[in-house]
Amino acid sequence: MLFMWLKYTGSTAIHSNELICHIQFHLVIIRRRPDTWTACLPDVIKTEKSRLRPSLSLQTLSNRLKLRHLVLLDALGRSHNMHLAAQQMNITQPAATKILQDIEDLFGLVLFERLPRNMKPTDLGEFVIRFARETLNATGKFVEELDHMRKGGHGMVMIGATYGIAYLLSPSIMRMKEKRPLLSIRVLERTSDILITELEEKNLDLVIGRFTSEHQHNTFDFRDIAATQMCVAVNPTHPLLAQPDISLAQLMDWPWILHPLSTPTRKLFEGTLADMGLKSPANLIETTSIFTTLQLLQGSNMVAILPVSSVRDYIRRGMIARLPISFDRQLEDYGILTRKGESPSPAAMEFIEIVLEVACGEEIERG
């Protein structure tokens, strides 16, 4: 290190006597407090020291990275508070602080900004937290599935599905259970934006839904199933059904049932209104639940915009009716999303093939 110091100070205009005094002064400090020797070094040497840190490697991580490191990163990433993170792990705060120091030393990075009231992840910290979360989710799924198989089960498939595809999901699940009776199947129904986040964090094996932003095309593989047709649904006894000609503008004074603003369905509706120069309805209820929507429609004169696929059976049974209104705008096609560059499990792959077969059969039947 002394050689490095001479190397750098030699390139500056420091006279030899001054340099000798400078070295002697710092050697005295180092002799008295060896634990703080780096504080005595010029910044240029500290920079060189950081440059000499060896590159990260898989072997280094496998030797030193532990699950408790990932658990702390996940807990701290959610709470931004060391005390709360320590509580979640059932350890003391000093122990949690020591674990974080070990992690930052391993990666050679500051992962959290130490603020007066909380701890804010740095940009690189967010990246490492995401890795920790995905690894923990994958590990949790592995443990759960392995335990299930130890008890005589045949694995598990976790499926995310958007609302309104029961016509496709239900027969696919029944076919899968015929082939693999002991396979556990877990279904999470949410909007596409939520499901895609769950898929990215490895909480799901696949999603039957649609893209909600352009960058997702780079993250997920997509198998197209079909386009989504929208319709305006009402109670079978609704007064509007008696009118021969009706337009969307005539419906603005009626109470509406709509999805939240962040959903693709609502964006399509609001975009259609903007194209027509219409204001959004003032009297509305927001929900993503198809069952709540159906109950409200059957008990009132409300109006709802829904995917045709989600209400087709209810229209056939006479539980609700469809108004003769079409939309120029269309939602993106829906299909099956999986993580890019990652092969689904054999059971998940088999289920995907079944879904595509059922979807093909539905298209032939409707054609």
From TrEMBL:
Listed GO MF terms: DNA binding; DNA-binding transcription factor activity
Cellular component terms (Gene Ontology): cytosol
InterPro entries: GbpR_PBP2, HTH-type_LysR_regulators, LysR_HTH_N, LysR_subst-bd, WH-like_DNA-bd_sf, WH_DNA-bd_sf
Residue ranges crossing the lipid bilayer per the database entry: none
Gene3D superfamilies, sorted: 3.40.190.290, Winged helix-like DNA-binding domain superfamily/Winged helix DNA-binding domain
Residue stretches making up the HTH lysR-type domain: 65-122
Matching Pfam families: HTH_1 (PF00126), LysR_substrate (PF03466)
Source organism, top-level taxon: Bacteria
Keywords, sorted A to Z: DNA-binding, Transcription, Transcription regulation
Keyword S-adenosyl-L-methionine: no
Family recorded in the similarity comment: Belongs to the LysR transcriptional regulatory family.
Protein name (Swiss-Prot/TrEMBL): LysR family transcriptional regulator
Organism: Telmatospirillum siberiense
